[in-house]
Design a protein that fits this description.
There is one protein chain. Helix content is 23%, strand content 27%. The protein is of the alpha+beta class and 208 residues long. The chain has a single domain, classed as M1 Pyruvate Kinase, Domain 3 (Beta Barrel), CATH 2.40.33.20. The chain starts with a strand and ends with a helix.
Length: 208
């Protein structure tokens, strides 16, 4: 597993549906090494901090295999890494294999996988497609949000190494599917709600 691109961007003002919207979803590849702060990469910010960013959404990773899927689904000229708003475009880091709570060394930073992504309407803006959020959710390719455990520096080519496996078999993909369908095998919901590293906000959403 490795980093293919490190992507950052600052909020910008866009027009959508006749309204001015500030969004931080536009992220582009950065050259050289990028330092990580407690809540962001240097040079990267979110716009609406009520739903984006924070400790449980500090870093968003999206794998290059998903780009291959979307190329077959969408008419899109620009496939520059960062298109989905991810900070890290990765190779070999899949939601179906990464468990809730897995701890990774990425560059010199320590990051813990804690939840899948469920994008807001601003993904529609990025793709100029009012149905993109719905399409994204149904694709089963949510990407992975990480929490910082130890800050550091990352750059293209850095290895992504599993340092500590979580004491569970529940993957990022399992939680994403449960959130989407609200259906689970007997006992799965209870197991998910008991996960120590799953954010309280996600647990609250699953409980209702």
């Amino acid at each position: 597993m490795r980093i293919l691109s490190v992507n950052v961007g600052l909020p910008r003002l866009m027009e959508w549906g006749g309204h001015a919207v500030t969004t931080g979803i536009y992220k582009y590849p950065s050259t050289g090494s990028v330092s990580i702060e407690q809540l962001n990469f240097v040079g990267d910010r979110q716009a609406d901090l009520t739903v984006h960013g924070g400790p449980d959404k500090a870093v968003y990773a999206y794998d290059t295999t998903h780009y291959a899927y979307w190329r077959s689904q969408l008419v899109q000229e620009d496939w520059t890494p960062g298109l989905f708003g991810e900070n890290l475009t990765t190779e070999g880091l899949l939601e179906s294999e990464v468990r809730i709570g897995d701890l990774f060394r990425i560059g010199s930073a320590l990051l813990r996988a804690v939840q899948p992504r469920f994008p807001c309407y601003k993904l529609n803006i990025r793709f100029n497609d009012p149905g993109m959020v719905r399409h994204f959710a149904r694709s089963g390719r949510p990407g992975i949000y990480f929490r910082f455990v130890e800050v550091g520096v990352v750059q293209v080519g850095d290895k992504i190494t599993l340092i500590e496996a979580a004491d569970t078999t529940i993957t990022i993909q399992d939680v994403a599917q449960l959130m989407l369908t609200r259906k689970s095998e007997k006992g799965l919901l209870a197991q998910v709600l008991a996960l120590p590293h799953l954010p309280a906000l996600v647990k609250g959403q699953l409980s209702h």
